[in-house]
UniProtKB/TrEMBL annotation:
Every HTH araC/xylS-type domain range: 221-322
Name under which the protein is recorded: HTH araC/xylS-type domain-containing protein
InterPro entries registered for this protein in UniProt: AraC-bd_2, AraC_XylS_family_regulators, Homeodomain-like_sf, HTH_AraC
Record keywords, A-Z: DNA-binding, Transcription, Transcription regulation
Cited SMART domains: HTH_ARAC
Species of the source: Paraburkholderia sediminicola
GO MF annotations in UniProt: DNA-binding transcription factor activity; sequence-specific DNA binding
Recorded superkingdom: Bacteria
């Protein structure tokens, strides 16, 4: 890979911090703030271009940087250090990002990074819809909820090392060619999305691999369909078993083998994900947490609030205020 890759696609070179922030916001979406160290001059390189799945970018920092960014809804950012390191916080997770550990933040999360002078990063932006389409093909069904990845990406594992090689090979191909064909770019993009799903732990990992590696029972697939079609209804284990044509015992055993959990826990997780997705996209001036929770089958609001906080690390009201907070920070 070139010392400064993607240089044919310059978005920003050595200008003001305000101009840099505008370029970052235009490329990544979302909003937040950036601040530089005490050097008199602000020198940063920012190259990149859009892809069908999102975009790929190169950033080089010639001063210490503090980044605090709200990732836009429906998007994922993967920041891979090529040189240097950064202290990272993704919501409540804190870790050190180095050339052997990338940082991942996605829809609605807050990414904070303290980046040292001289650091160089490759940043990949991926639209959430790309993962939904890939999951649909890999699982042969409609995904019940959005994919959520672990934020700390270990680049020393075989799977994530392969992901890094795919990304760097794509960048090298872009730099070497005047223009890559649409088919070539689609091949790279498909590999990246698939490798992320298979290599980085997420809420579909168990299903993608399976505890026994054996195909999922058609009856369990029917049970999942019953759950997805009735998330807002007061479902019981009996209802799910009857809809799938199974006994309660066979249903419980099948879910333990396929997902390592119970049918009701699977139902609760699907409902929580639907609530979160709707809260992130809702207008807090004319929407209430109560209405959305009831819509997706949570009848006991106290238990719902506890389960939501345990799953996502924040109260549902905080999620609902996310869009309003974005608007306030921009004003």
């Amino acid at each position: 890979m070139l010392e400064r890759p993607l240089s044919k696609y310059r978005l920003f070179d050595r200008s003001s911090l305000d101009t840099f922030m505008s370029a970052v916001s235009g490329a990544f979406g979302g909003n937040g703030y950036l601040s530089a160290g005490r050097k008199q001059t602000f020198n940063t390189y920012f190259h990149g271009l859009p892809l069908g799945i999102g975009g790929v970018y190169y950033l080089e920092y010639e001063s210490d940087m503090l980044v605090s960014w709200n990732v836009t809804v429906g998007s994922l950012l993967l920041s891979i250090p090529v040189a240097g390191q950064a202290s990272v916080s993704v919501d409540s997770r804190v870790f050190k990002s180095t050339t052997s550990c990338a940082a991942l933040a996605q829809s609605g999360q807050r990414l904070e990074m303290v980046i040292e002078n001289g650091a160089r990063h490759i940043v990949l932006r991926v639209n959430s819809s790309a993962f939904q389409g890939a999951l649909r093909r890999m699982l042969d069904r409609e995904p019940a909820e959005p994919v959520f990845f672990e934020p700390e990406v270990d680049l020393t594992t075989v799977a994530n090392w392969a992901l890094l090689r795919i990304i760097t090979t794509m960048i090298e191909a872009i730099d070497a060619a005047d223009q890559l064909t649409g088919l070539a770019m689609q091949s790279f993009e498909s590999l990246i999305v698939g490798q992320l799903l298979l290599g980085q732990p997420n809420n579909y990992s168990r299903e993608l691999f399976g505890e026994s590696g054996s195909p999922k029972s058609p009856a369990i697939a029917r049970a999942e369909d019953v759950i997805r079609a009735n998330l807002g209804e007061p479902l019981t284990v009996d209802d799910i078993a009857r809809g799938a044509g199974l006994s309660k015992r066979a249903l419980q055993t099948g879910f333990r083998r396929a997902h390592g959990t119970t049918p009701m826990a699977f139902l609760r997780e699907a409902r929580l994900q639907r609530v979160r997705t709707e809260l992130l996209g809702a207008d807090p001036t004319n929407t209430s947490v109560t209405n959305i929770a009831l819509k997706w089958g949570f009848q006991h609001l106290g238990r719902f609030a506890v389960a939501y906080h345990r799953r996502f690390g924040e109260a549902p009201s905080q999620t609902l205020r996310f869009r309003a907070n974005q608007a306030n920070e921009l004003s």
